[in-house]
Every structure is written in structure tokens, then in C-alpha cells.
Amino acid sequence: MEIGQKVKVYRIRDKVSGNVADKLGKVGTVKEYKMTDGSGVGVVVKFDDQTATWFFEDEIKPIN
After folding, report:
1. Are 29 and 48 in contact (CB under 8 A)?
2. Among 10, 51, 16, 15, which residue's Cα sits nearest to residue 31?
3. CA distances, 2 to each of 6, 15, 26, 28, 43 (Å)
4. Name one Pfam family in it (predicted).
């Protein structure tokens, strides 16, 4: 994943709030990287409605 890349949320690993669950199937733009609670890296995705949240890399897919 690269900053500025368009991605689609295609799955959510864990139980999340309704606001985050509503992002399933939505397209957004990668804004930055985020260190997760282990050795993993997540990405912060900003959506057209100006909200942003982070996802694990295996929860999103790049779109063309």
C-alpha cells in the first residue's frame, strides 16, 4: 500500500463500532501508516465523507 492510493475495505477482522462497520465495501484513500499493537503495520484510510479510520493491510485491497 502506498500513501495516496485508493483502496476498498473488503473485510473487517474484529468486532468494531457501527461507524467503522459501515465502511465495509467503501472506497477511500490511504493517508498514513500506523503501527499496530504487535509487529504489524496498519494504514489510515480517509473516506469521501471526511472520516478516517485505520485498518490492517489484509482488510483492504487496492483498486485500479
Report:
1. no
2. 51
3. 9, 26, 18, 13, 9
4. Tsr0524-like
Strand order in the sheet with 27-35: 52-56, 41-47, 27-35, 6-9, 60-62
Domains of the chain with bracketed CATH:
6-62 (2.30.30)
Express each pLDDT in 6-62 by its tens digit.
999 999 888 887 888 899 999 999 999 998 777 678 999 999 999 999 999 899 999
